[in-house]
Automatic annotation (TrEMBL):
Underlying gene: Dvir\GJ12193
Catalyzed chemical reaction(s): AMP + ATP = 2 ADP
GO terms under cellular component: cytoplasm
Protein name, as recorded: adenylate kinase
Single GO term (MF): AMP kinase activity
Matching CDD domains: ADK
Length: 228
């Protein structure tokens, strides 16, 4: 009996420690904006992120780029990831979240804000991110037709010196299916913090709308910091 009580107390203590650690982590990262960048393959996530980085100096973390770095390392894990990516499916979230978490932890001391590009791709990814890393302030969803996305990726592939392994028509169609299957649930769950942007326009016109909303988020953060 005494032993059981002791075990329960230890378990409670461990749970409380974990909760305190999660809260500490969330508070440290939440001082700066965290923006999820959503949209189908080729909608222009990376293009807009590059412009945001140029203007605001935020840290750009693309889940696809982090995964491709792991693939390029030539590890066994990298080979398994490559297989999933060239099939157009989703890599298990444990892998993606651990890469994102490591990158956030590495850079948060000097970061002015985070752009989490290509994440979440299904709603549980969002839930786990907010539990384990920090709540997102905003999600930007770049809305684009499948036809345009397909054309943009094929054009990118044609122009590239080194073509991405998943930039071929068969894989692009599978990436589009994966995107279609999962996205409405994300948009529903995070409706309150999502802004949908028409991505079928000129890069600079899209960016003007992006700037308006990021300025708004920054002002909100500043006001919240003053109140605290
Ligand atoms: P990822 O690398 O994220 O690929 P993606 O989502 O398919 O998107 P892309 O990077 O191809 O396109 P983009 O939206 O960035 O567009 P870009 O700006 O380059 O993911 C790859 C794979 O990794 C996934 O399929 C999955 O397997 C795995 N993965 C990644 N994240 C994951 C996660 N969270 N969970 C599980 N698995 C995950 O633009 C495309 C082209 O269009 C460029 O040439 C650009 O110049 C041009 N362009 C851009 N904007 C415009 C415009 N407005 N007008 C005209 N041209 C434009
Ligand atoms: Mg990209």
């Amino acid at each position: 009996m005494l032993f059981m009580c002791h075990q329960m107390a230890m378990k409670k203590e461990a749970q409380e420690k974990l909760k305190a650690e999660q809260l500490r982590r969330a508070q440290a990262v939440s001082d700066i904006p965290i923006i999820w960048i959503l949209g189908g393959p080729g909608c222009g996530k990376g293009t807009q992120c590059a412009k945001i980085v140029e203007k605001y100096g935020f840290t750009h973390l693309s889940s696809g780029d982090l995964l491709r770095e792991e693939v390029a390392s030539g590890s066994d894990k990298g080979r398994q990831l490559q297989e999933i990516m060239t099939s157009g499916g989703l890599v298990p979230n444990a892998e993606v979240l651990s890469l994102l978490n490591a990158a956030v932890t590495r850079t948060k001391g000097s970061s002015k804000g985070f752009l989490i590009d290509g994440y979440p791709r299904e709603k549980n990814q969002g839930i786990e991110f907010e539990q384990k890393i920090a709540p997102a302030d905003l999600a930007l969803y770049f809305d684009c037709s499948e036809d345009t996305m397909l054309k943009r990726i094929l054009a990118r592939a044609n122009a590239a010196e080194v073509k991405r392994a998943d930039d071929n028509e068969e894989t692009i169609r599978s990436r589009l299916q994966t995107f279609k299957r999962n996205t409405s649930a994300i948009l529903e769950l995070y409706a309150e913090k999502t802004l949908t942007i028409n991505a079928e326009r000129d890069v600079d016109d899209i960016f003007m709308e992006v700037v308006e909303v990021i300025d708004c988020v920054l002002q909100k953060k500043e006001r919240a910091a003053k109140v605290c």
